[in-house]
Structure formats: structure tokens, C-alpha cells
Amino acid sequence: EAKQPIPVKMPGKKHTAKDIARAAFAEFLGLLFFTYVSAGSVVATSNFPNDSGRLVAISLAHGFGISVCVYMFGKISGGHINPVVTIAFLVIGEIEIVRAALYIIAQFLGGIAAGFLLLASTPPTGWPGIE
């Protein structure tokens, strides 16, 4: 039998620390992957000969990147992949404050890690504006 997804909020059931840590780690990985793919598409297309082709490539990378992240991590954490989405869920009462705080911390750390990973995996000449 297939595993059921863990909803963000389950009335009457307490989440274990392991569930919350797993979900926060999923948010970390989700934002790391999304930021690496989306910012990487900007770097990778910096030498494209025309702007319209570059715009299409960057747009597709962002669209497919967020789709893949939500598909991969949605069952674990709800697939927020963005601190603003987490804050919105907090405001409407769909997520507990502790879980929201952990998600936001994990998301910020995922974005920072992705920046360093992108910096380490691309040559300096590939960055727009850096000679």
C-alpha cells in the first residue's frame, strides 16, 4: 500500500520532532535545488546571443525547477519552497509557529547554500558583470 502524504496540519495529532526535522530538511533541499537551478540558468545563459532565447531558457528553468521541487518535497513538507508561502500559511493558521520558524530558517539556509554551491561550480567568467 502506498504511503500517505504527511499534511502540513493534522488536527488532533501531534507531530514528532523527527517529522518536523524531516520536513524542515525537505524545505532546505527544496530551496537549495530551486535556487541552484534558477540562478544557475541565469549564469548558464549569460553568453546567449539574443535576449529572447535567454529569457525563454531562464523562464523554463524557473518553471520546471519549482514544479520539480514541489513534486519532490510536497508530500514531506507541503512544498512551500519559499518563506513568503510559509508566512502565508502561518497567517491563515495552516501551520504551527514552531514549524513555520524552522521552515523559514531552513529555507534561508538552503538559499545561502545554493549560492555558495553555484559560486563553487561555475567559472568566474560565467558570471554576468564579472570579467
Please, could you describe this protein's structure?
25% of the residues are buried. The radius of gyration is 17 Å and the shape is elongated. The N and C termini lie far apart (56 Å). The protein has four helices and no strands. The mean pLDDT is 85. Helix 1 runs parallel beside helix 4 and helix 3 packs antiparallel against helix 4. The chain has 131 residues and is mainly α.
Total beta strands? 0
Uncertain parts = none
Rg calc? 17 Å
Helix content: 55-70%
Query: How many helices does DSSP assign?
Result: 4
Query: What global shape is seen?
Result: elongated
**Mean model confidence by pLDDT:** 85
Which sheet architecture does the biggest sheet show?
none
* Multimeric state: single chain
Distance between the termini: 56 Å
What's the helix-strand series? Answer: HHHH
Secondary-structure class: mainly alpha
β-strand amount: under 5%
Secondary structure: elements and pairs:
Layout: H1 17-44, H2 51-77, H3 83-91, H4 97-121
Helix pairs in contact: 1-2, 1-4, 3-4
Short overview:
The chain is mainly α and 131 residues long. Helices cover 68% and strands 0% of the residues.
Keywords, please?
68% helix; single chain; 131 residues; mainly alpha
